[in-house]
Amino acid sequence: MKTLLTITITLYISCLSGNLAAQYTSPIEYGISADFGRSYYDRLYYEDYRKFKDDGEGYISHFKSNYVWGVGFWIERHFNRNFSGLTQLTYHQTDILPDIYSQWNDSGFWYARETHHHAQAEIGMRWYINPQSKLIFFTELKGGVNMFVAAIDRPYQKGKQVNWDAFGYDRILPVASAAAGIKWRRFALMADYGHDLLRARRDDPEKLGFMDKKAGILTQRIAAKATFTIFK
Question: Which residue positions does the secretion signal occupy (predicted)?
Fold first, then answer.
């Protein structure tokens, strides 16, 4: 009887330990994300604009969005308790000052509102610093591509205008991002920073002539991001 009880307890503990380990280190997790922040733009012109000032001349070299928000879907593949791989698809909508992105060296006043729509795909790695704690700190690095899907202008009159070619700028660009945050059970909260790896150039030879390779717009994005694990 004592031997049978010992075997039963041993088997129970073994199964329980296996279940706990499986719950803690699920090989694949699926989830959703939401973020809110702001985009910052650095623009170089096709001529020497430094002789002008950002005082109404139209040569605006630095500007920012009113806000940017996004939603996404992600898959995480755990290699061990400390490291995992990430795949992420995200949609972003940017509310920006009308015309400031579209014009070569001017900002217009014909529209009440302008929104930009982007789709982004990234892959990367995540490092869990203290995986055995209830509150787990982590950092992550990702790289991928960002696609300018469309820009929608809303005139002061009724209706809207849709621009599908990113105002002549490059629509697809390589991007990189980094994040740091904290995870509790199925929830995670982090600070996320994204950066274009190349400037978006505008190729319009009929109006602008030869395009300097250093000219164009470079975008950065800072956001607070929350995620939730749906399946694990």
Answer: 1-21
pTM, two decimal places: 0.80
Phi and psi at 110, nearest 5°, equal -90, -10
Check residue 47 and give its pLDDT. Answer: 61
Cβ contact 215:46 at 8 Å: yes
74-111 CB burial, b ≥16 within 10 A, e <16: bebebeeeeebebebebebebebbbbbbbebeeeeeeb
CA distance 152 to 202: 19
Give dist(CA 66, CA 160) in Å, integer.
Answer: 19
Pairwise CA distance, residues 168 & 166, whole Å:
5
Half-sphere exposure of 99 (CA within 13 A, CB side): 12
Interatomic CA distance for residues 46 and 32, integer angstroms: 41
Mean pLDDT by 10 residues, the chain (232 residues): 48 42 68 98 72 55 94 97 96 91 59 91 98 96 97 81 87 97 97 96 60 76 98 89
Q: Rounded distance, CA 193 to CA 180, Å? A: 9
Structural domains in the chain plus CATH codes: 28-231 (2.40.160.20)
- Of how many residues is the chain composed? 232
